Amino acid sequence: MLYWLAEYSETFIGFNLFRYITVRAGAAFFTALIFGFVFGKPLIDFLRKRQGKGQPIREDGPESHLLTKKGTPTMGGLLILSALTVSTLLWARLDNGFVWIVLGVTLGFGLIGFADDYAKVSKSNHKGVPGRVRLGLGFLIALAASVAAMLLHPADLTGQLALPVFKEVLIDLGWFFVPFAMFVIVGAANSVNLTDGLDGLAIMPVMIAAGTLGLISYFVGNLNFAEYLGVHYVPGTGELLVFTAALAGGGLGFLWYNAPPAAVFMGDTGSLALGGALGAIAVAIKHEIVLAIVGGLFVVEALSVIIQVAYFKRTGKRVFLMAPIHHHFEKRGWAEPQIVIRFWIISLVLALIGLATLKIR
User: Fold this and answer.
1) pLDDT over threshold 90, residue 61
2) Which domain holds residue 173?
3) Above 50 in pLDDT, residue 66?
4) In a domain? residue 361
5) What would you measure as the largest C-alpha separation in the chain, in angstroms?
6) In a domain, 269, yes or no
7) DSSP 203-269
8) Residue 203: CB partners within 8 Å, gap ≥ 6?
9) Based on the structure, what is the number of domains in the chain?
10) 211 and 251 Cβ atoms separated by less than 8 Å
């Protein structure tokens, strides 16, 4: 919104700064961060008052959670989404289709997560909205976003799957790109959702992944950088740096209250929304496979659940002491902060590997 002030740079030369994506990205970060600090405590107090007993804790989960996490309110993702939305609308170019696609996916999955959290809290049951309903709604949102992204991509990239490292290689999926992109978005949303099981565990890797994808978006959306790095140029995607900066600012504002011991959980409201956002950004910038690298932690968390369920159905035995895998390490005796910080380190290393694919060509 404030980008349009750049048109009045002749009246006040300072407005010319709003033409630069990097300036607006910095402003978006601090806007979202301040929003989180200002509204964080009032929101938590409101959620605690409304929810009473807080998020229902699974009785089949780690025993310590019944003591340490009981009574903690959920739906803290509302803080992140509010900060992210306000900041993006203020600082991003609102005539950019990619911004609306990613923001639409984020808020759409946020609504699904909110409905799930509300069902859990109101019924005092951890089951919430049936999984099939959540998946069905998620795929509908992903379908709309995938088709819209295809229409916005340049003609030579429409329906194409780009591979990291091999700069000249494109796999023509045609309209099969749509179900592929839907799988990426829905898969990312649910993988982040599965990761959100310990205080601060999901939000920092999400911010790291978003920051990495934001940088890639800026390079991919800039013709000079794209040619220098040998990546495919996707006009308009540079504006997504503003969105990811807002996400990082809102995420830090939330982490202030979510750091162990958490005063609030983000809930499915936040985890589904943020995961969907990562998937939508990856589809927009044609870096779906790089997302699997940068978000490798989320992939491992999801795979641990898939492996556990499949192996148990086949043999009646378990591969892990408990899935997702972070609970396995809890059962092994690792302290919660130890798991969280080590997973953060892994996320940072994976992000650096993902960035390295830009130069290894």
Assistant:
1) no
2) 2-356
3) no
4) no
5) 74
6) yes
7) HHHHHHHHHHHHHHHHHHT-HHHHHHHT----TTGGGHHHHHHHHHHHHHHHHHHHSSSPSS--HHH
8) 80, 251, 254, 255, 258, 266, 270, 274
9) 1
10) no
